[in-house]
Structures are given as C-alpha cells and as structure tokens.
Write a sequence for this structure.
C-alpha cells in the first residue's frame, strides 16, 4: 500500500494530504440550508451537507493531491447518518483515485483491535463472501495498549495490502504530558517515551515492507520539528504522517527534517487551512459559493510552500 | 452520572457490567441463519442478528446488572449496518433501565475529542434543536494525547451529566510495554507511567464530582491486581472499570483491592464469559437455543464469586 501512496506523491509532486474534517461551522451555509430545507434540522440533513461539501473539495483538488484523510470523529459527531457520510466520502475518494487515510486513532486489546482492523482496512467473510466494510486504505492507530493492540492491524495490512500510521508524537499542545516522559530503565535510560514507541514502530514495520518503505508508518506533529528530525532517523523505513501544518502552527520551514534524503518519507496534512480556506482573509474573495476553488488555491499555496522548503 | 451507576449497583447488589461484544462466532447459528435466509450474506443481516442476540442477553439479565458495555469495535467491524446495530443496542439498553458504557477508547487532539464527546455523550445543536447522536451514558477514553485530548470529554460530562473512564492500566498482556515504563524525572522519579496517568485522572476528576465519586473514572485490568491496589489509593474518588475478569484470566479473589472500604468504587466487566456462556462446558446444557438463559446463569455465578470475595 505504501508504494501506492508514494506513486501518487511522485506523480503529482505532492507530499500532502487534505484532511476532510467537516466541522459544522466550515460547511457553507448555502449547502447546509439546502438540506435543512429539504430534510429539516436533522442529523440526516447535516450528513448530506457534509458529504456534498466533501465532494466539492475533492472535485476541486484531486488532481493536485495523492490522498485525503477524513477524521472519523467529525462524522461520528453526527451519529449514524454521519457515519454513512464517512463511508460515502471514502467511496467517493476512491472513485477520484485518491488514497484514503482514515484518521480513526483506534487501538484496543488484541481481539478488539482485530475487529477494528477488519472493519476499516480488512474484510469480513460471510457465507464465503468477502466484504470490505469501511474500506479505507490506511488508518491511524493509537499505541497506548502496546504490541498486542497494534499487531492485529499489521496482520490485516499484510493480508490485504493496506497500511497504518501509529501515533508517536502528536501535534497538540499537551502531547508531551505523557509522550515526552523520560524513561529511567536499562538501555532506554534518559529517552522520552515517544522514542520508545518510535523504535517499536520501526520494529513492527520490518514485518510489512513494501519496497523501500514499510506499510507501518508513524504520526509525528509538524509542531515539533526537532523531534521530527530525531524520529526520522529512528524510523528510517517508516512513512511519517505529519499533522499540525497551517492552522495548528506548523509551516513549510519546519518540515524538511521529516523527509529522507530521497525526498520521500513524509506526507503533510492540512485540514482546516484547506477545507475552510474560504473563511480565511487570504481567500475571502472566493466567497462561500466558491469554497471549493478557495480550497484549490490553498492547496496550491501549500504545495508551493512545501516544495520550496524540502 | 456516576451516582446513577452507583444507585443501580446498590439496588441490584451487583458491581458488574456485561460487555456486549458480539463477535460473529458468538452469535447462535439459529439467529444468524434466520437473517441470512431473509437478507442474504450481508452486513445488514449480521447487524440484525447481533442486535437480536444482544436483546436476548439484555432481556435475560437486566434485572441482575446495572449496566452494559457495548464494545463499538465489534459493531464497526460490520460497517455502517454494524454501527446502526450499536445505536439500537444503546437505545434498547436504556429502555431496560441500564446504564450504557460505550467502550469506544477514543482520544484525539482537542477539537477532535470535542467532536467525539458531542457525538457519544453530548448533544449537537441544529437550528436550535438539540439531538443526542449516540447517547451513551459513559464512554472510555484513551489518554495518550494528554490533557487537551481528555478535557473536551470532561466538559461534556459536566454539561450533560455523563461520565468517562480513562485508560490507565489495560488488561492485555502487552499493556506494560508503554504503560509500565518507569519515569526518571523530578517528583515522578521511579514511578511507572500508568501512575502518572492515574494522578492526572484524579486531578481531572476533581472538576466533575457527583457525590462522593467523580464522573471521571479509570480503566484498570483485573489481570493486574497488585497495581489495582496501588491505583485505588492514587485515585480515591475515581470509579474503576475493571475488565479482564473471566476469559482474560482475572477472578473474584483478584478484585478486592479495586474496591474502597465503602464497598464501592469499582465495577467489573465480563464479556465473553457471559455472552458466550452457552459455548462453555459449564453451561453447555442450555444449548444454543438457550444462550440467553446461559448468560443469566453465568451472571449469577459471577455475582456469587464477586460477592464472596469483596
């Protein structure tokens, strides 16, 4: 799977992913009102609205980007109808030739992680018939439960040629509270927890190589560029998904250290900065009606920033 | 919310919760085949089957237990139809007067955790109308992202009188890989990470008290009883959700240390041991047709074991 992502990145010269995180406040009023008028103030109306909003953004940007990353929380927020919109978004992204990174941050005890893995990147077999329930290509995984909570995902990656990005160092302000704690034992003495997790990622990844890179990647926030440099070296074969660019504070000059010398090894996410670009002064002239074109302009600007700095 | 759970525990003299984790292999064949015959080998058929299976178990046990804990992974495994079955299970549990602990183990950056919190234990407001999308009473939360990933859940708990259980020390074999790492810094020198998380839980919980206990509880596995004793003391006001009883290896004699001297402070989960009891030699005489009665017998035996040991 990681080679499929890399092909897209090379073909489009675009190591970026657009985060499809449709907060209600981002969806243009004309879209929301259309569905409210049709279906009332219901979860179903919102779900249809966020799907149409996503389609607009994908239609306007798919030729510039290799992948999208829908954040499932923004869909679960709207209950079952929201989850239906998530699934429709995944399917539409595939139609546009995009790799889908499901930002689900799941992780549980072994048998339960196995169920998440089958549902999101695997297949369930019913009466000899195989069905891919959500059918993302790659998902994000939370490592707090240790190896036996991650391995079922890796097994499914191998069986179905899919991928995972494991949370190592997240982009949020308080990520250091537990992730940065310095360990006192043995060979790991003096090292922060996120490095221990990173070494596990490198270790797990050996078992699922796809060309020069592994199907087991990592999440490291753009907001922590020095840590990115160090983590890049600790996980040379892991693709790094880099959130935190744009609205969260990361910029192009912070990113070089996340990439390898081959110019590969990282993919940078922007969500709000792209999908809500029309709300930003810089792109305000597009207006709410031109939200998708504003998103395209923001992708072009982000690409210019990144190409200049890598 | 925690007082509502405590009332149920006292009223039924039952500090236990049944984990509704319907793996496909647990669902009796007569139920699966009924829906396969009606709807073919589809996710929709499986979803209807697991819902009927859950209803049978709830009907047979609701008077003995204060709460159920559906594990959302087992529903997501079957895609959108599975998520519909999850929601129907939550609603049916409420009809039977049960507190619903959604075992979702979510956790993300602040705004994203906020979306999960609204979707699962909160309300979204659409055109002035408030809607509870999934409407669980309590959910489990993963702390790996630190305070700003947990606080949005606590805010929603306060607003809507709901609760959370934060993962501290999980029941699985490799939970120690990261959770047990010993910290080398300052006042925390020499202490494992799970204790640092536990102190945060105690700290976060002060802000959402409900009587003598907090709406912010913790998850600590029955499989680690010595740690349970220590964690009980570190979080005196936190209710502890204790998974790992039964199939995972924990037994009644391991549980005393998880409770406070008031006989409260913990609720013990069993999933497979109850819902798949009919597959256990001990209850095999019930047969697949009597699966719900087997579950009731298993609950009675679990209660006897726990009452004897606490």
């Amino acid at each position: 799977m990681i080679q499929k992502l890399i092909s897209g990145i090379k073909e489009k010269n675009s190591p970026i992913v657009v985060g499809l995180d449709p907060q209600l406040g981002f969806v243009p009023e004309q879209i929301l009102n259309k569905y409210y008028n049709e279906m009332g103030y219901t979860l179903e109306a919102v779900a249809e609205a966020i799907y149409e909003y996503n389609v607009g953004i994908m239609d306007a940007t798919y030729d510039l980007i290799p992948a999208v990353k829908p954040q499932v929380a923004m869909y679960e927020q709207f209950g079952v109808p929201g989850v239906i919109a998530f699934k429709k978004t995944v399917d539409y992204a595939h139609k546009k030739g995009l790799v889908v990174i499901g930002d689900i941050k799941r992780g549980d005890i072994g048998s339960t992680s196995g169920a998440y893995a089958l549902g999101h990147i695997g297949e369930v077999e019913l009466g000899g018939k195989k069905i891919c329930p959500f059918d993302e290509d790659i998902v994000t995984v939370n490592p707090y439960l240790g190896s036996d909570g991650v391995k079922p995902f890796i097994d499914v990656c191998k069986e179905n040629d899919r991928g995972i990005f494991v949370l190592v160092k997240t982009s949020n302000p308080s990520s250091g509270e537990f992730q940065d704690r310095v360990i006192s034992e043995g060979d790991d003495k003096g090292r922060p927890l996120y490095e221990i997790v990173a070494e596990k990622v490198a270790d797990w990844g050996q078992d699922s190589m796809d060309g020069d890179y592994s199907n087991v990647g990592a999440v490291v926030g753009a907001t922590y560029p020095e840590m990115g440099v160090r983590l890049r070296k600790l996980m040379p074969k892991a693709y790094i998904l880099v959130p935190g660019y744009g609205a969260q504070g990361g910029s192009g000059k912070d990113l070089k250290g996340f990439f390898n010398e081959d110019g590969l090894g990282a993919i940078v996410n922007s969500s709000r900065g792209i999908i809500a670009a029309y709300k930003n002064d810089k792109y305000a002239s597009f207006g709410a009606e031109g939200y998708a074109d504003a998103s395209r302009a923001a992708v072009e600007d982000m690409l210019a920033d990144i190409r200049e700095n890598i």
Remarks:
- The longest strand of chain A covers residues 99-106.
- Residues 170 and 221 of chain A are 5 Å apart (CA to CA).
- Chain A has a mean pLDDT of 96.
- The radius of gyration of chain A is 19 Å.
